Amino acid sequence: MKTVRSCTFLYVTFVLTLVSTPVFGCKCVPPPPDAKTAGEIGQWYASRSDTIFEGTVKRVDLKSVLMETKVGGLFSADLDQNVPTLQVTFDTLKFSKGAEQRQVLLTTGLGGGDCGFEFEIGKKYLVDAYADESGQLSTGICSGTRLLGESHVSVVPSKYCGRVATAGLDLEDSQVSLLRSVSNSQIPFDRAEVTPDGSFCFVGSPPGNYHLVFVSRGEDSPNSFVFFPGVTDPSEATTIELRSGQARSDLVFVVPPQPTFSVSGNVQVPHKSVLPAESKVLLLSADPSSFFLGYSRDVDPSGSFEFGRVLPGKYWAFVVVDSGDAAKWLTRKAEVEVNVTVSGLSLDLVQK
Questions:
Q1: For a designed S-S bond to 77, which of 36, 41, 321, 352 qualifies (C-beta 3.0 to 4.6 A apart)?
Q2: Which domains does the chain have, with CATH numbers?
Q3: Is this model's pTM higher than 0.70 or not?
């Protein structure tokens, strides 16, 4: 039996919160032993790069086949074929290797072990990039890419603490996440566990502007998803600022009760086809600001599925196959609005 690789499933595990830490690791080829000085190491990195430039980050966007496929469109049910990435846009460029461009788009991983490099909007980097056969540039932590212009800045670790105030909600499996308010990737920058008394702390997070998101799970499914100071609409969220050396412990995050609804339906396969083993239905929020809100359920051999408690909102629904037959199947992207009980949701698996 084949298991979906953690590096491919990283953004889904963020969404579903099925695991707390990815289990894969990034292994870099070290510089040769005779490269001892910073200059020699830099020359070694440069010799392996196709393009080298200095540039300022303008945008960071999460890219995935799921997001780019239109509702009703087909994409692979094998997530090994749909690895999500971050697309980074640079301007204010100065090239030392490769063809000069007015703007550069390159890809990197999500981080957490897939060798992705963490870029921050508005900051300047020296980038060692590699080109694939199509000319698409990419980089990661195994390159010579590095932040420029802040070596003289002393950042004192901050401690930003608060308390979740809620009525009757079990906080045993709850977290508060930091999302950079100026980023379009919507991948949590940092996460803090909520203790049974509702307290949480972020220690040493870099200075910047963030949104706070509270997520609580029951039976491995989100039953609360709220933006600070206590709103479900991300446009109403309040930005918090983390400053170097800041120590704060008076933040109160009010979490209101939220309704949930059941969602059920069937997975359809072509006539005379058998539903592949290890099929799952995923519901992922269609709101870019809430992209890591989602649910997963196994599909019964008969094709039926049911989610017992789903928070209100618009979701993308699709099927994934986590078995040796995964590469043989396509899934159709559907959209469903959950504000009442949903039954009879029909999802398609199509053989290639």
A1: 321
A2: 33-72+82-143 (2.40.50.120), 159-255 (2.60.40.10), 261-351 (2.60.40.10)
A3: yes
